[in-house]
Design a protein that fits this description.
binds beta-D-galactopyranuronic acid; single chain; 11 helices
Length: 361
């Protein structure tokens, strides 16, 4: 059934190189680079490049979550291409008992700053650490004419080249700078370091995880259009709509392929490229039954369409039955996990609990 549904979507082939040669396990890394470069070219823009090492300084430390954890606020600083540097805050919360002898899994949580998406005590109680940073402290989520925060350092003259990064790429780049910090800490289990985000920040988590292979786990919560959902045949939000309402999330060039739905469905890529770029690491996609704007069916089908990348490498990809998901379903036995939560567009404790289960597996 799923193969028939996917055939109707007529997706561009995942495992055939631009020059027409079929991808093998040996050429996967080359193909992965191609997938990333196609996504950069048409959708998110070129990822910012590191021009020097990330540094950090501790600003504040306190016991949190009723005394079961310690939260530390760091200022993270990295050099920028204009010869200056950029600094943003991150709050790292580590459960008591985490140490070099007893390292814990950790999430880089790209956040809106809304407390209702972050049931901190419940998460920390499960013995995982979270490093939260807020999108608006890195790149303003709106049309700032590229004049504020990180944008001002990447585009000092206020002009953005057509293939340059949008805000999603800037937030994703910042997630990697937070990862620089996490990887320096003995109390973090380096084999379990995930990136997680909801909605526009779920798209961001996917893009961060696709680019930075040091993330061992990638979590997309209700990311929908230009996130986990296949674009061809998608219901709810479309490329023309998202590109006109949120042009600053993407590259300038994305406008060219988003003039109308037909054009956006004739591109040489679809979102299964984004999911597959996480292979052979672990990927998790979550949807919610009432989130039609994101389109749970298209998110689910994308997992199925990306799965051959894992299979090519001899890994179990997406292990799910040959049917569409029902509310409450969770398929997380392979390296690609998925669940369909009953409810609306939200990052809930139920989502977090599944992610924690998956990262601990
Ligand atoms: C919506 C947007 C979605 C999604 C969401 C969010 O307005 O259309 O793509 O990202 O915002 O981030 O909450």
């Amino acid at each position: 059934m799923l193969n028939e549904l996917l055939e109707k979507r007529a997706l561009p082939p995942l495992l055939v190189s631009a020059d027409g040669t079929p991808t093998t396990a040996e050429t996967w890394e080359k193909r992965r680079r191609e997938l990333l470069s196609t996504l950069e070219e048409y959708e998110y823009g070129r990822m910012p490049r590191s021009v020097g090492p990330t540094t950090w300084s501790e600003k504040h430390r306190e016991r949190t979550a009723g005394g079961v954890a310690v939260s530390t606020v760091y200022d993270i600083t990295f050099p920028t291409p204009d010869g200056e540097s950029f600094t943003f805050p991150v709050t790292l919360s580590v459960p008591d008992g985490a140490s070099a002898e007893n390292p814990v899994p950790a999430f880089v949580y790209i956040s809106f700053g809304f407390p209702w998406y972050y049931p901190m005590e419940e998460i920390l109680d499960q013995n995982v650490a979270v490093a939260e940073f807020v999108m608006n402290s890195v790149a303003f989520d709106g049309d700032d004419k590229w004049g504020t925060l990180l944008s001002a350092h990447l585009f000092p003259d206020g002009k953005r080249a057509p293939d340059a990064t949008g805000k999603i790429g800037m937030w994703a780049f910042a997630a990697s700078r937070v990862l620089d910090l996490l990887l320096s800490l003995d109390c973090v289990d380096k084999t379990r370091v995930g990136v997680v985000g909801h909605s526009r920040l779920g798209k961001t988590a996917l893009w961060a995880g696709a680019n930075d292979e040091r993330f061992t786990h990638v979590f997309s919560n209700d990311s929908g259009c230009s996130g986990a959902a296949i674009t061809r045949g998608k219901v709810g939000e479309t490329f023309p709509r998202i590109a006109s309402v949120f042009p600053y999330w993407f590259s300038e060039k994305m406008q060219e392929i988003s003039t109308d739905v037909e054009t956006s469905e004739r591109t040489p890529f679809d979102q299964h490229f984004l999911l597959a770029a996480a292979a052979p690491r672990k990927l998790y996609v979550a949807s919610a039954t009432e989130d039609e704007w994101a389109d749970p069916v298209s998110e689910y089908l994308a997992c199925r369409a990306a799965s051959p990348a894992w299979e090519l490498l001899g890994e179990p990809g997406f292990l799910a039955p040959d049917r569409l998901p029902e509310g409450g379903d969770c398929f997380a036995d392979g390296k690609v996990g998925y669940h369909l939560r009953i409810g609306t567009h939200f990052l809930s404790r139920k989502d977090w609990n599944r992610y924690i289960e998956f990262i601990k597996k």
